[in-house]
Amino acid sequence: MSERQIQLEVLRYNPETDSEPRYQTYSVPCMNEWVVLDALNYVKEHLDPTLSYRWSCHMAVCGSCGMMINGEPKLACKAFIHEYTDQIRVDPMANFPIERDLVTSVEDFIAKLASVKPYLIPKEDKPISAGEFKQTPAELKKFKQYTLCINCMLCYAACPQYGLVPEFLGPAAISMAHRYNQDSRDGGRDQRQEVIATDTGVWECSFVGACSEVCPKHVDPAGALQQVKVASTIDWYKEHLMPWMKK
Amino acid sequence: MAKSNKPIFWGLFAAGGTVTAFVTPALALVTLFAAMRYSPDMFTYEVIHAFAANWLGKLVIFGIIFLSLWHAAHRTRVTVHDFGVRADGLVAIVVYALAGIGTLLTLVYLLHI
Hints:
heterodimer, A: alpha+beta, Ubiquitin-like (UB roll), Fumarate Reductase Iron-sulfur Protein, Chain B, domain 2, five-stranded mixed β-sheet, two-stranded antiparallel ribbon, 7 strands, elongated, B: mainly alpha, 3 helical TM bundles of succinate and fumarate reductases, 81% helix, 0% strand
C-alpha cells in the first residue's frame, strides 16, 4: 500500500455567496488504490466539510458521481488515482448548470428522459392469467446493451452538440427510447418516434461519437443513435413515398 | 413537435458514405494505375466508353457520382459547422446547390454518350 500526496484542484461555487466559480486546492494523502471519489471523501471528512458533490454506491452502478476529471467526463468512483499524476483537476460535469460546487442541475435531462416514455408500452393488454410475455435470447440481445445505461449523464457532458444546442434530446434519452423500441414486448415506437425523429431529437446528432467514448457502461449511445437514424429514414420514405402503407 | 425532413439528405449521405467507402478507393487506385500508363486492356478508353454507353453502365456511373456528391455536400455542411461557422442555412443552400448542379451535369454528360 503506497501513499501519494495529491494536489486536488476542485471547482468551488456557491451561488448564494460567490459571484463566480473558483478553484480550491486540497493536498490529499491518497492510497494508490484509491479512486478520485475516495480523495473527495477524504477532503469532506478531514479537510473541508463544506465541499458538495453527489455520490452513492462507489461501484459504478448508481451513476451519481459523474464529473470532469482533468477535463474528461468520468465517474469519480471509476477514476483510479494511479492513472493520474500528482495534480488532479476536478470540475462539475460540463454542459450542465452548477447547483453548488460539483453538484449540477439535472432537471433538463430528467425531463428529456421522461419525454421519450422510457418504459414498456405493451402492444396489447394481456390479463395476468394469460401468462408472461416470452422473449427469446435473440430478442433480448437486440436491446440488452442499452438497458445498461445508469443515467450518469457523462454522455451529455461529452457531447459538443448538446453544448451548442441545449434543446438537443441527447444521447442517453434517445438510446433509452431505442432500447424500448427494440423490445419485442413493446408497442410504443410510434409514440416515441414523434419525440425522437425530430430536428431537436436524433437529427441534431452529428455523430461525433464522444458519448460512446466516455460511457462507463459501454452502452454505445452513438451506435444506438445511428440505428435510430436509419430506422427513421426508412420511416420517412415509407410515409412520404408509400402513404398507403400507413396504418 | 413535427417529425424532421432531414432523412432526405441523411439518407443520401448514408448511402453515399457506403458507396464512397467501398468504391472510391478502388477508383482512385485504378486512376493512379492509368496515370502511370499501366492500364490493362480492361481499362482502355474504348472499353470504358462502351461501358458508359450501355444503359446499365450509365446507371452505375450515375449512382456512384450522384451519391458521392450528396455525401460530400452533407459532410462539408457538417464539417463547416464543426469549424464554428454558424450559418447552417446558407451553407446548406450552397453545398446542396453544388451537389444538385453536379447531379444535373452528370445526367447531361451521361445522356450525351
